[in-house]
């Protein structure tokens, strides 16, 4: 049995290409909405890490935070074995879709899709 060289090792991509494309699509929409949160007076970002990086380096910090989050999702998807990697990335897609939808609705209509119910 021969041992493969380090160049022959490939990443175990999580799930089919369509699932990865869906992840990056909703991730990008969420990134744009988050950037816009820092430019409109009626919405604000709740994630403390994103706010910290924005305060540190501006809009570039928001992009860096988003890249870190995407890196975690893709990195964890590479480490998990099938079918757990597909389930993990699918759940990330569902969550990003929820977050991005809420963010876009908030930016367009000035009302969040999901608002806390206050009695």
Describe, in plain words, how this protein is organized in 3D:
The chain has 119 residues and is an all-alpha fold. The chain has a domain at 16-98. The chain is built from four helices and no strands. The protein has helices at residues 17-37, 48-57, 59-79, 84-109. The longest helix has 26 residues, at 84-109. It is globular, with a radius of gyration of 17 Å. The chain crosses the membrane at residues 21-44, 56-76, 88-109. This is DUF5658 domain-containing protein. Keywords: Membrane, Transmembrane, Transmembrane helix.
Question: Secondary-structure blueprint of this entry?
Answer:
Elements: H1 17-37, H2 48-57, H3 59-79, H4 84-109
Helix pairs in contact: 1-3, 1-4, 2-3, 3-4
Provide a compact summary of the structure:
66% of the residues lie in helices and 0% in strands.
């Amino acid at each position: 049995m021969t041992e493969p060289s380090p160049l022959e090792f490939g990443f175990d991509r999580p799930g089919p290409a369509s699932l990865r494309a869906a992840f990056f699509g909703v991730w990008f929409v969420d990134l744009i909405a988050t950037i816009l949160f820092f430019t409109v007076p009626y919405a604000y970002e709740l994630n403390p890490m994103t706010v910290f990086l924005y305060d540190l380096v501006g809009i570039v910090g928001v992009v860096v935070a988003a890249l870190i989050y995407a890196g975690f999702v893709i990195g964890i998807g590479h480490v998990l074995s099938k079918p757990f990697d597909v389930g993990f990335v699918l759940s990330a897609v569902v969550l990003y879709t929820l977050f991005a939808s809420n963010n876009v609705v908030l930016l367009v209509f000035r009302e969040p899709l999901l608002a806390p119910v206050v009695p």
